[in-house]
Design a protein that fits this description.
Helix content is 51%, strand content 13%. By secondary structure, it is α+β, with helices and mostly antiparallel strands. The chain folds into 3 domains: 120 residues, Orthogonal Bundle (Butyryl-Coa Dehydrogenase, subunit A, domain 1), CATH 1.10.540.10; 98 residues, Butyryl-CoA Dehydrogenase, subunit A, domain 2 (Beta Barrel), CATH 2.40.110.10; 146 residues, Butyryl-CoA Dehydrogenase, subunit A, domain 3, CATH 1.20.140.10. It is globular and about 80 Å long. The relative contact order is 0.12.
Amino acid sequence: MVTTAAQGPLELYDVDGNITEDDRAIRDAVRALMDDVVRPNVAAWYESGSVPARELAKELGAIGLLGMHLQGYGCAGTTATAYGMACVELEAADSGIRSLVSVQGSLAMFAIWKHGSEEQKDEWLPRMATGEAIGCFGLTEPDFGSNPAGMRTRARRDGSDWVLDGTKMWITNGSIADVAVVWAQTDDAIRGFVVPTTTPGFSAPAIESKMSLRASVTSELVLDGVRLPASAVLPHARGLKGPLSCLNEARFGILFGALGAARDCLETAIAYSQDRLIFDKPLAAYQTTQLKLADMTVALGNGMLLAQHLGRLKDAGRLRPEQVSLGKLNNVRESIAIARQCRTLLGANGVTLEYPIMRHVNNLESVLTYEGTSEVHQLIIGQAVTGHSAFRG
C-alpha cells in the first residue's frame, strides 16, 4: 500500500497565499485564543447550555476582535478580509462564539457606527470594543423574521420623548446586554433606537431548551412603555434600509465563519479516519472514505476561495448585497452538508460531545436560518439574475 505525506484540506488550495501577512497574524492570534480559552471548555458549555459570555467578551476585546473592521472609536480598523478570517477561527471553535462577536461588532456596533450620532458613538463604541459593554440587536419578532417590514414594535412621540412598546425574539446577547439597538415602526418610517438595558420597561428573558447554539446567549426582548429621550434615535437611519445594512455586515461574517465549522468537522473526520481501523487497515485507506473526503475538500476549498474573493471586493468598496447572498447561501449550505457527511465517517462516535461534529451540525442548522434563510437568499439572487422580485405573490 502506497502512502504519502498528508496535506490539510485548505493547503491544496493555498488559501494562505490569498491573504496578507497582517491578515494571517490576526487569524493566528484568534486561533490561539480559541485553542487556549474556548476549545477546552466549549463541549461543557454546550452540554450545560451556558457560556461565560461577559468574561469571553473581555478576552475577545483584549485582542481587538470586537468591531475590528470598524474605523475609530477604539476599533482596530482591520481589513474586511481579516475580519472574515477571524470569523473562520471563531466558528471553528463554535458558532455561538462567532455569533457573540458578529452581533457585537457587525450588528450593534455597526448600527451605531454607521447610523448613530457622535454622542452615541462616543458613549458606546469604545466600551463595546473592549468588551466592557455588551450590545444586542433587536429586529426579529415572533411573527416577523423574513419579513421585518411587518414588525409590530412601535415607537410613538410623547412630547420630546419616544415611547417604545413591542417584543423582539431570538436576540443573541439579549439578557447580558448593556445596550440594545431596537428597530420600531413610527408614524413615518422604521427607526432605530439606542436603548440602555437599565431603562424602566425593558426586560430580556433568556430563551431556554435550545438544541442549537447552546454556547450562546439567546433572549427575548420585551419593551413595555420604554421611555427614551430624543437623543436615543439613530439620526442617520430611516426606513428598512437601516437595519438591512447591518444584516449585510453580519452576513459577510457568516459566509466566512460557517466554513470554520466545516473545516473543523473535516479535519476531525480526517484525523479519525487515520486512527480508526476497519478490517485491520485505517478507515482512511478505503476508497469510499477517500471519495467522501475528496468531495468535502473541494466544497470547502471552493467556499473559501469565494469568501476570500468577496472579502477583496468588500475591501475595494465594490461588494454588493446580492453578492453577500451568494456567499451566505453557498457557504452555509455546503458547510452543513460537510458537517453531516463527516458525522457518517465517525459513526456513533459522531453524535457524542467527545468530538465536535454533532455540535457543529446542530449549530449550523441555526446559521442556515438566521440573517436570512436560504430561501430568502435564493430569491435575492433570483431577482438579481432575472430583474423580477418574487418576494410576494
